[in-house]
Amino acid sequence: MYVVHHLENSRSQRVLWMLEELEFTYEVVRYDRRPDMRAPEALRRIHPLGKSPVVEDRKKDGRSTVLVETGAICEYLVDKANGRLGPPEDGNGRRQYRQFVHYAEGSVMPILFAVLVASKVPLLGRLAANKVRPMLDVHLDYIEKEISSRPWFAGKELTAADIMMSFPLEAARKRGGLDQRYPATIKWLDTIHQRPAYQKALKRGGNYAFAS
Ligand SMILES: N[C@@H](CCC(=O)N[C@@H](CS)C(=O)NCC(=O)O)C(=O)O
């Protein structure tokens, strides 16, 4: 049994979506953000980093494995699902899969985070945001080119690479300038939002401001 420690309006929505796609049984423990948008102290009792997602894989003997880091959690679930949503067979697809699983948190999220935080600070923050935004545009241009050439990030089928890419692109649409200038990316977002598993995950997760 999987227990997902899920922070409202956060990256951990992806784990719920993945569990739904795999039709795995899971429980959700929901956490509200504090007024300063940080995670509450209670999450630190589950894992010292105090971030979400945290997934517990509870074994029948009462022991549990505690997992953090969305990409690592997705890869763990792919293993548990005997490779479902994992890398495709062909070499090109495998390379794309590996790249986008890491790229989402490793390259896009840090820039997006900088834009989001800076744009909330008056005057100097906004100037800083304007400086960082072109760096985000480079990523959005690259992503648009990639997703224009195939239906999913690693080829012809949905994989964990798409699940990893969902949050940065949803957040970029909400607050980072991803708009109709990037039609293939917008179409990809609309496609994932229509999946029944995505919709079920939304109901399980509660507040999520990034799905529209
Ligand atoms: N790279 C990590 C990032 C984890 C992370 O920063 N989670 C955010 C959720 S969007 C969080 O818990 N923020 C609240 C806080 O830092 O207090 C992952 O993908 O799991």
Query: What CATH architecture label of the largest domain applies?
Result: Up-down Bundle
Low-confidence stretches: none
**Order of strands across the main sheet:** 2-1-3-4
What name is given to the CATH topology of the largest domain? Glutathione S-transferase Yfyf (Class Pi), Chain A, domain 2
Helix content: 40-55%
Specify Rg, calculated over alpha carbons: 17 Å
What molecules are bound to this protein?
Answer: glutathione
Give the termini distance in whole angstroms. Answer: 30 Å
Number of domains: 2
Shape: globular
The ordered string of helix (H) and strand (E) elements is EHEEEHHHHHH
Q: Structural class of the helix and strand makeup?
A: alpha+beta
Work out the number of β strands: 4
Task: Name the CATH class of the largest domain.
Answer: Mainly Alpha
Main beta-sheet strand count, sense and barrel state: 4 strands, mixed
Q: What is the average of the pLDDT values? A: 96
Q: Please give the count of helices.
A: 7
SS strand fraction:
5-15%
